[in-house]
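Subject line: Sequence and fold of a protein, written as structure tokens
Enclosed: The protein record, placed directly beneath this head.
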Amino acid sequence: MYFRDFLKIFLRILIVLDIIVDLPVTCTKCLCCICCPWAEPRWASVNRGVLICDECCSVHRSLGRHSSQVRHLTHTPWPPTQLQMVQMLYNNGANSIWEHSLLDPASVMSGKRKAIPQDKVHPNKTEFIKAKYQMLAFVHRMPCRDDDSFTAKDLSKQLHSSVRTGNLETCLRLLSLGAQANFFHPEKGNTPLHVAAKAGQVSQVELLTVYGADPGAPDSNGKTPIDYARQAGHHDLADRLVEIQYELTDRLAFYLCGRKPDHKNGQHFIIPQMADSFILHQTCHLLSLFNKLQLSNHLFEELAMDVYDEVDRRETDAVWLATQNHSTLVTETTVVPFLPVNPEYSSTRNQGRQKLARFNAHEFATLVIDILSDAKRRQQGSSVTSPKENVELILKSVSSRHGSEGQDNDQPDYDSVASDEDTDPDAPTGKGNRTKVLIHASHEYIL
């Protein structure tokens, strides 16, 4: 027992000093949670490059994917190169990026400290993790001066130059300071992802795409990062970039049927079939509405991304419940019943996202199939524009098929802080209205 605790502390020191060697991720008993160093990590925050324990993971999940993208190390399917990227960041001390000011001895005098295993999840660990990843309170800030050259554009240019090397933590630091993963270099005529793909920097590619870099973005000559990788002979990397390009629709298809398209052989979409004939009929009806009403590509992408986030929440919930000690960890404070608020979105869009949690399995599967089918149609070249009422009519159609199914629900499924508008206190909350409650929020997609 004491030796094991000593080993954890010793490994933590090695991590801080950036001299730890690569360890297999299955050997989690030899690793340390980066937020409270003694606990055994079984989860990873992909975009932060850290490993975390179950208790800290419960807080990370409550922050939302825009703050922390959480995956289980062994119970979640990982792209091998993405897992290698996270391991590399963890082993190279990426945590020092998020705790920079805490490494200053003066922080002890000011009362700042990181959480410890003995702290309670709420409020101690919660407050620390929110300050660290949501507020970025401990990240090193560039000095603010009138002649300061470290603007977002300059940081992005540094990122553009750095991704050709294997210095992954430098690029993460630049991204944490505001560098843009999709920055188009005016002199070079391409993006950081083009540069990383040409150089064959697999981990850099993984990091950039986690931060939103687009594998299909054209350079000044119309070539994509996928083209750059193939022309440079990095065929495995090019194949991986194709997978990333179709990540959203692949994830939705896998959620429903456990299969992904065979991109190498030109199959880019799988449209699962519903066994229930009534649901299948409604799916066909909604597909005709998508075609008739012609939702714009931009608004359709927003809707698809919201559904993707809800799929991630549901899948992570399933893994979370399957891996916890139900007598100690699964409580009301560790459950994420709906999508957390994203401050970059308006209150109406946040409410609509959260109310996706009201869809039951069949209802949600129908919506996912609709999106997959329309995504395939759009990818084949049918670019459209949208009348203002499109999303509202689609959502009304979804709700109409459940109008006769009543089910009381005394507890709201959404976070009241997501809206700065008053809601109707007499509005029904039964199952028959699970989709209808999205209608007022749909205006966010059509403004």
Residues 1-27, 383-414, 416-447 have pLDDT under 50 and may be disordered. The chain has three domains: 2-134, 152-245, 277-403+430-446.
